[in-house]
Amino acid sequence: MNRSDDLFPQPGGTPDPYWQRAFDDAFDTPPPRVWEGVERQLDLDESDGILPLWQHREGRQSMLFGRWAAGIAASLLLTALGWWAWHREDAIRPDARLAVTTAPVHSATAESGTLLAPVGPVVASAEATQTRPLHLPQLASTHNIARRQVRSGEAQAAGHEAAIGASTPGASTPGASTPGASTPGASTPGASTPGASTPGALPATGDRLAVAEKAGNQARTGSVNELPDRQSGENNDTPHTIVFTETTTTIQVQQAAPQPATLVGVQPSGSHSSFRMQSFSTQSITVQSGFGQGLSDNMRLRGVALVPPASEQPMAPAMDASADRLTLAVNPLAPKQLVIRPLGNDRIVWYRSNEATAEPTAATSKKRRERPWVSAGMAASSFNPAVAVRSAFSPAVNASQNYLNDLGTSAPMLQSQLGRAVAFQAGLGIPLGEHWSVETGLGYLNGQNQVQSPGRISSLTSSAKSAATNNLYVDLVGRLASQPAYATAAPITSGVAYDYNLANQASSYASSAQQSVGNSYQFVQVPVQVGYELRPRRKFGLALLTGMVSNWFVRNTVAEAVTIKAGDGVYRPVTLAGTAGMRLRYRPDHHWSASVAGTFQQSLQSLTHTDVSLQANIQQVGLSFSVDRHF
Amino acid sequence: MLDERTLVDGCRQQDRLSQRLLYERFAGKLFAVCKRYIKDPDEAADVLQDSFVKVFRHIDQFRFECPLEAWLKRVAINTALKHLRKNKPFEHMTDVDELANMLPQADESLPSLNYQYLLNLVQELPTGCRTVFNLYAIEGYTHPEIAALLGISEGTSKSQFFRARGLLQQKLTDDQSIRNESF
Predict the structure, then answer these.
(1) Which A residues 361-420 touch B at CB under 8 Å?
(2) Could you give the ipTM of this predicted complex?
(3) Are B91 and A4 inside 8 Å of each other by CB?
(4) Same domain, residue pair A465 and A507
């Protein structure tokens, strides 16, 4: 008996000849959707490989090779894309993502209640901070002001004008006004601030709008990016948001007589840029660039609503009261949730009969028995140990910080930069049921990153100026680890490693002498995870993983000169980290499978001992690829 | 018309045209089989779809040791049984061995009845009875084989078949009476 007979056994008896004859040649035309469904499933089946464009016709061996090759290529491509997305300079990071909306704010200089009365040149500052949202679109929605066209070079038009430039409210300074913003009184006192008037200081391309802001004596420039809005121009009640990425921004709002509102942007090259706002039925704004080389033509800006031109539509009193002063506010954007969709397209079940429910014993006995597996693979991830000076040691640290402040800098003492890590892993998975499993393993991780550290002042004039070890970070780590290479550094009190009053030491540190110090961490990792796997297709599995990872510290090589080991008293021998991820597994046969997983790992405790003045909490986001052998 | 061996060879090469031709040739017959087991036509179509997907996936296992049509029908029957098991229709089936000894003889009047009428008769049977009747009377499986296929006892299979035959004969008798009265 061949294998097909095992799957589909032949009958061993004799059918009823009458009934068999009655149904023997029975024919019933199936609906057309049946073949379509068959084709669809065949297209998704193994004959087409992983990638749709990858056809396998030469035989099973080459098909297998093709699948693996395609899988590896896809993994590398995903890794490269993730790496690029993380490192590109204009990427919007969580810590830099801000929602900027604008809202009318009653100004002391506004003549509320008088729509068409000349208000005169009113200069209002738009204070852009990283924590305050501003709801300017409410202005537009209330007064049916939705769409305004902003054009450059029209700031001279008489009437209502609102200009964004560099100015303090009511503190206009003639002579310092932005070119083109020729409204009397329109001024840009912040123009002298570096960054606000420096040509080319505000890079802006595409949909990015560079603006400048002057509030008090602080000037900042930045860029405003339009966020995607599916309801743009349709829902006037929904405030539009743009992303404001601060560099150094100065925003000036000017208002004059009831004329077409004008938004004046401070251009990077010193040339004048202004935007004329016109009313439309939606809240989107078309911006025609006046930023010279900085802004592209016909770029669109949504969500900014300024004073409508008096000639186009009447203005409500509230509108008038709020038009003369506009305030920008910045809100942290809530991160979008990752939408997980099931793979493929399952057939829709249209009907389910109301039959009695009980599982037959045969069906129970034929349930697929899950088996354990072992895996081997590697992972590439970002690596950020977030090294910082522990706040608990504020006396010494504050002293040094004050010293640094005295030197004219407010930069943090240590800046840990994002690095990269590579891990090699061997794992073991034990199924607990149809969906659940417990996984553990052993891995080796090598993570590298850079720490920006203030250098020793004493080294500025010495021959050791260029040495990467003459800085605060290396001194702290090296001395804590009792490295002989740092005998020349400032002395410390024996047994109190952090007693390192930098302000009182001869070797003080200055951020003006920043040095980049490389770290190379090595860990042995032992993860313990619980997984819940779904099998949307027979050969595909999608698993959600979460658990803990114990990171066994091996060593850290600092500046390629100092090696700190677990026994040196700086780093904890073992630290715990929480991990979560999602794994896609492709299983071409019963014994082998390949997995691609995205993982996130966050250290739950500092990598260093509590009595050490440094702290480090490792965070990793990466992608892993593994080959699994199922027993 | 391509012979079966050519069609099967083409399907083994995953040639879509051969698969389509095989489908066109046997889909009608297999759909009739599916409708004998699955009362709902939409569900029967789903089972037919799954059957052909299974056929094309396992076509390498067919070695011409039996007619292709018979093999295809077995695949369809197996798929239909698997579908039925999801709804667990065999739980409350009666297990009375005494009934199995009262199996009636075959009805010789069947050939005069058309397919659609007989199909309606079979489809009106309860799921458990219908399944056992199909497997025993039409496919030719023995009661031990049916018991293994459905995960029931042999006595249950016999009793379900007895019940099915009784229901069918009762229905045939009633319909015959109606026809006689109408004439």
Answers:
(1) 361-365
(2) 0.85
(3) no
(4) yes
